[in-house]
Amino acid sequence: MHNDQxxxxxxxxxxxxxxxxxxxxxxxxxxxxxxxxYLCNRLxxxxxxxxxxxxxxxxxxxxxxxxxxxxxxxxxxxxxSLRIAVxxxxxVGV
Length: 94
Known about the structure:
The protein has helices at 3-12, 23-29, 33-43, 48-64, 68-80, 82-92. By secondary structure, it is mainly alpha-helical.
């Protein structure tokens, strides 16, 4: 998706710059695949400490929803950090 398309999609659905600082809130509010893909891609830009802040919310969204992009982000984050992987496993109850 090009930046112009992303900007239009986000503006059309009320997603602003705050969505980049609190992605789980906007992931919860929006079920549209394009918006979820965009927000999930933004999660890759967060440092590990930034992700940890929202980790329990993201894990809850993975359990509640069927979103391939969100599943992929969480799996990628777990592969990148053992600390995150342990926290996700505790949140899921594995």
